[in-house]
Specification:
It contains 22 helices and 21 strands. With 790 residues, it is of the alpha+beta class. It has a 6-stranded antiparallel beta sheet with strand order 1-5-6-4-3-2. The protein has a 4-stranded antiparallel beta sheet with strand order 16-19-20-21, with no helix packed on it.
């Protein structure tokens, strides 16, 4: 294989270092240029579909996947970029060991010497977490078995390997997993070929349940037990027939667990129920528990663990009245967990790392930063029409036309008025009468059109809706901001409290190690301490301190004379100055009986006392952390729900604002232009026209007065030369006004001719003020009295 030239997709040659592992499909090599990664090279070129699968996985790595699995990083091609796929690079996983070395008792003592059952529970919890993260993005492990999971001896961290065999969902396409192990295969798939088979999350739920059972029950298989029927019962057959050896129906299924086993009832009821569901016959139809359910149930188990008083390495759930590990040691003589052998003179046995509370801490951080729903951004406002609807525009146009007609009529009336006063009464009347008619008609149409105009009312209603919508949106946003501020304030307060507890938890290990050194350096003090610790309060009669008060002291961690002298007794309910003084006096009296023996080294009892003390502190701190995290679950749900409600409220206000805006008949400039009165409807124009009429009247009166005086003067001169007023019929006279000649001496007689002022006419008769004159052609007609005077 060293002769094969491998290149990545960028055409860069990939130099391979020493081989670090080999399997049935290929070998794993160190990458000298990238110590953080290794290369898996297939022994023979895989099918084309496998190459496509690796390329897709490398291009679509889920966020943070390198913390979960050895996910393909780059595809390796033979001969150059684009050549046949021969392997891939992946993260290098160091310091982790196959998970079966953990749940097997013999290998665990060698490979994981300090691991207790709590460590196995944590490993199971981490397994569920890894599967949960993978399932969340639509992928499945497919070939679940004890070889493709590694676990860290330091903190039970779990990593998946052999990712190239995963079942990968690539959009609408699925790259299937075509391998599997029968002992991890669900009943419905037993005996089937895996090629072309698309697995379901429920089927993987069976495999995950088997893996978790291995961890919690120290390597036992859930379908391996004692068969009480006839014939051979292999695990594969038991799986096919749903013969769960540890279940409540095991006897009916002719199965029993092995002689030495951890009962299913050791687990919390929730976790035991999940195993029953996962292995029940109806599970293939109804569905099996998913990784998230397992994770939550395992969290509950991890929180419920306590240390055995006889052996601190024994951990078991709080609902049990006795330590199951001690019971198996007593009845079967089997010690699954014991303290590791250590010949060092100092005490051993206590470990406390932040990784132990990492799941709880991570959950707390997640709860303190809930995934709040945020309002969707307001969609862009559609452009309103650039003109009014036809009906509204027609109404506006009618009002405008009537208004314009009013302007024209008013202007013509003003002109006619001036002409009538200053120039010619007849011409002025001819202009004034139709102008006034036009003005009156236009005024009626304008008034009627204004009354029927719907646009102002619609705009006013819509403006009110707009204002309400804007106010509602502002109020919703303000409420949302206040909620966020309150949420941040509460979350910050919770973080400060949890950070303090976490820091105190992190100090336990250094304090324990300091105590170890102190034990070696201060033997006398340690002997004194041990002497005082052996003086238990409950074993002594102390004046004024009965059993109830002694129980209070124990609940506060004050059990011995040493605790009395070290702790503040006054914080315990029921202990005032008098009782505290008596208790301290008793402890000091006990201390007087101490005698130092310089020949004694640190005893096993002292070591255990130290370990026990720190284990109690550790358990107390963890309990306090759990007590602080527990209400956060409800709080986080409430905050998430409240944020969702506020987001819906803001979105509703945004939609209301959009509806109100879209309710406008047209764009704002168009509406404003339609509502704005034209210039000629301005009050100043109307006042100007009225002023023109009044001014015309005044000018007319003044002109008439001046004109009469001048006319009289002018008319007097011709009279001197010729007689204007006839003394008898038949004499000629000058016509002073434009006049109409009629057939009779009345105003309703037919008109014969229009006469112009200044004409000289022969007057031949007179009747009732009417004068009979000779017209052209010798005709005779009558002129009214107004024709001859001004």
């Amino acid at each position: 294989m060293s002769q094969t030239l491998l290149f990545n997709s960028r055409g860069e040659r990939m130099a391979l270092g020493p081989e670090v592992g080999r399997g049935g499909e290929g070998a794993v090599y160190v990458l000298p240029k990238d110590p953080r990664r290794v290369a898996k090279v297939y022994l023979s070129a895989p099918p084309a579909e496998q190459g496509h699968k690796l390329a897709w996985m490398a291009a679509h790595a889920p966020p943070g996947v390198e913390k979960l699995a050895a996910w393909p990083h780059e595809v390796l091609h033979e001969g150059g970029a684009g050549g046949p796929v021969r392997g891939f690079t992946m993260p290098r996983v160091d310091g982790l060991k196959p998970i079966h070395l953990l749940y097997s008792t013999a290998s665990r003592r060698k490979e994981f010497p300090t691991a207790d059952w709590a460590f196995l529970v944590q490993a199971a919890l981490n397994c569920a977490s890894v599967f949960e993260e993978l399932h969340a993005v639509g992928h499945l492990v497919g070939d679940v078995n004890e070889s493709n999971l590694l676990v860290s001896p330091r903190d039970a961290t779990v990593r998946l390997i052999d990712c190239d065999s995963f079942q990968i969902r690539a959009g609408n396409w699925v790259f299937r997993c075509e391998v599997g192990v029968p002992l991890f295969t669900p009943p419905e798939l037993q005996g089937q070929a895996f090629r072309g088979l698309e697995r379901t999350p429920s089927q993987e739920g069976f495999s995950l349940a088997v893996l978790l059972f291995h961890l919690l029950f120290l390597g036992r298989h859930p379908f391996t037990g004692v068969f009480t029927g006839q014939g051979e019962m292999t695990p594969e057959r038991a799986i096919r027939e749903f013969r769960f050896a540890y279940g409540r129906n095991a006897r009916a299924l002719q199965m029993a667990p092995p002689a030495i086993h951890l009962p299913l009832g050791t687990l919390t009821p929730e976790l035991a129920g999940l195993f029953e569901r996962a292995f029940a016959p109806e599970s293939s139809r109804a569905g099996r528990p998913g990784a998230t359910e397992w994770y939550r149930a395992l969290q509950g188990l991890a929180r419920s663990l306590r240390a055995c008083a006889q052996e601190p390495t024994h951990k078991y759930p709080r609902h049990l009245s006795a330590c199951p590990w001690c019971q198996m040691m007593a009845t079967r003589g089997v010690a699954f967990f014991t303290s590791p052998q250590n010949t060092a003179p100092g005490p051993q046995g206590f470990t406390c790392t932040l990784q132990e509370i990492e799941p709880l801490w991570a959950e707390a951080q997640r709860l303190l930063a809930p995934n709040l729903a945020t309002p969707l951004p307001a969609p862009p406002m559609p452009a309103l029409p650039s003109r009014l609807p036809e009906e509204l525009q027609a109404e506006v146009d009618r009002v405008r036309q009537a208004s314009l007609a009013m302007l024209v009529g008013g202007a013509l009336a003003t002109v006619g008025w001036w002409v009538m006063l200053l120039a010619s009464t007849r011409v002025g009347q001819l202009v004034l009468v139709p102008a006034c008619t036009l003005l009156a008609s236009a005024l009626v149409l304008w008034w009627k059109g204004r009354r029927e105009l719907r646009l102002p009312e619609q705009v006013a209603e819509q403006q009110e809706l707009l204002q309400q919508a804007e106010a509602g949106l502002a109020a919703a946003r303000a409420e949302s901001e206040r909620f966020k501020e309150e949420l941040n304030r509460l979350a910050e307060r919770g973080r400060q409290l949890l950070h303090g507890l976490r820091a105190e938890y992190g100090r336990l290990q250094p304090e324990f190690e300091a105590e170890q050194r102190r034990q070696l350096q201060h033997r006398e003090a340690l002997q004194r301490e041990q002497f005082l610790r052996n003086a238990l309060i409950e074993d002594h009669e102390i004046e004024g301190i009965k059993d109830g008060l002694k129980s209070n002291l124990v609940r506060w961690g004050i059990e011995s004379a040493y605790d009395v002298l070290k702790e503040d007794v006054r914080q315990v309910p029921g202990f005032g100055e008098v009782r505290t003084t008596r208790l301290v006096a008793w402890a000091k009296e006990v201390e007087k009986g101490f005698r130092f023996d310089p020949g004694l080294a640190v005893s096993e009892a002292e070591r255990r006392a130290l370990v026990s003390h720190f284990l109690q502190r550790k358990a107390s701190l963890r309990a306090r952390l759990e007590a602080e995290v527990a209400p956060l679950r409800t709080w986080s749900q409430e905050m998430t729900k409240r944020a969702g409600e506020l987001a819906v409220k803001v979105e509703g206000a945004q939609q209301a604002l959009m509806r109100a805006t879209l309710g406008m008949p047209a764009a704002r400039p168009v509406v404003e232009a339609a509502l704005k009165p034209p210039a000629w409807e301005d009050r100043r124009v109307l006042l100007g026209m009225a002023a023109a009429v009044v001014l015309g009247g005044l000018v007319g009166l003044m002109t008439r007065a001046t004109g009469m005086t001048e006319l009289a003067r002018v008319m007097q001169l011709p009279v001197a030369r010729e007689r204007v007023e006839p003394e008898k019929p038949g004499e000629a006279m000058v016509l002073l006004q434009d006049c109409l000649a009629r057939e009779g001496a009345n105003a309703v007689a037919p008109v014969m001719e229009r006469l112009v002022a200044g004409s000289r006419l022969e007057v031949v008769g007179e009747e009732g003020g009417w004068r009979k004159v000779v017209l052209g052609g010798g005709r005779e007609g009558w002129t009214g009295p107004g024709c001859w005077s001004q």
